[in-house]
Every structure is written in structure tokens, then in C-alpha cells.
Amino acid sequence: MKRPYQKGTGTLISVLIIFTMGLLLLTALQRELEGTFNISVQERFYFKAYNQAASSLSWGVSKQWPLSSLSHRTSRRHQGWYCETEQINQLKSCIKPMLDIGIFLIKGESISGNRSEKIILYQSAKTNEMSNTTEQKLVPITGGWLDFCPVKNEKFCLD
């Protein structure tokens, strides 16, 4: 009995097909992981900016602002934001009197280094005079926290 002569080309082709399919699957997996990584980097920058804006807003609410000079400015409709920054923690908070007397709008901003996206949070607050002093303190209005400008006129919230 004579054995047939086998060259092994069929086996070699099937091994090459399996390697090619594996390479294609690994390439697709790498692209998927790169996309997921880019999304997680963007989310990290967003959460950092959001937390910085929230910290700036909290700092602005608890800060002692020159409320009497802000309240008595002329042309209340056209006055700009009065801003202060705290360099150590990179906080920026601004205040502006609203059209209602004794109501102020505080905004906390994220100071982004090289990124152009900036998150701004707003809090409405009213003045509360202390009983035994002439000092005025800001008290946040319940439900006054917003992540968009609460005034209908968009120019009011612009810098």
C-alpha cells in the first residue's frame, strides 16, 4: 500500500486564517480600549472641573463680600460681576446683585488650565443682617442652586 504524499498546504492555510482572525480581533479590541480610555480622560477632566466649580461656589457663599458697596452701585442693570480668586486651591467666585433688592447671584467657576471648557454653577442668596452687628451675611436661597443662568436675559450672566 502506497501512502499518499501530503504537502500540508491545507493545514498551513487554516493556521494563517486563524492567525489573521486573531490579529483582526486584537486590533478591534485595541481600538475599543483607546476609545474607552479617551472617554474616561474626558470624564476625569469634567469631574475635576465640576468639583472645582462646586468648591468655588461653596467658597463664594461662605465668603464675606462687600455687600454694601455692591448694593449701592449705580446703574444696577449694567454693573458687572465682582470676582475674587483664591490662588492656592484655584477657586474663582463672583457675585452680582439681582434686580430684587437684597438678592444676589453668586457664581462659582472652574479655572481650567489648558482646557477651553469651563463649568459655571450659580446660587441665589439673600442678605441676612446679624442681630447685634451691622454686618450682613449671605444666606443661600433654598432651591437657588443652578447649573445655568437663572435670569431670562442671557446678557446678565455674561462676563
Layout of helices and strands:
Layout: H1 9-62, H2 67-71, E1 82-86, E2 91-97, E3 103-110, E4 120-129, E5 136-146
Antiparallel strand pairs: 1-2, 2-3, 3-4, 4-5
Structural summary, described in words:
The chain has two helices and five strands, in the order ααβββββ. A hairpin with a 4-residue loop joins strand 1 and strand 2. It has a five-stranded antiparallel beta sheet with strand order 1-2-3-4-5. It is of the alpha+beta class and 159 residues long. The model has no long low-confidence stretch (mean pLDDT 82). It has a domain of 109 residues. The chain starts with 8 loop residues before the first helix and ends in a 13-residue tail after the last strand.
The neighbouring-strand order within the major sheet is: 1-2-3-4-5
- The helix tally amounts to 2
Tally of DSSP β-strands: 5
The percent range for helix content is 25-40%
Q: What general form does the structure show? A: rod-shaped
> Mean of the pLDDT scores?
82
Q: Helices and strands: which structural class? A: alpha+beta
In the predicted model, the low-confidence regions spanning at least 5 consecutive residues are: none
Tell me the fraction of residues in β-strands, as a range. 25-35%
Largest sheet: 5 strands, antiparallel
Radius of gyration, CA atoms, in whole angstroms? 30 Å
> In sequence order, what are the helices and strands, one letter per element?
HHEEEEE
End-to-end gap: 96 Å
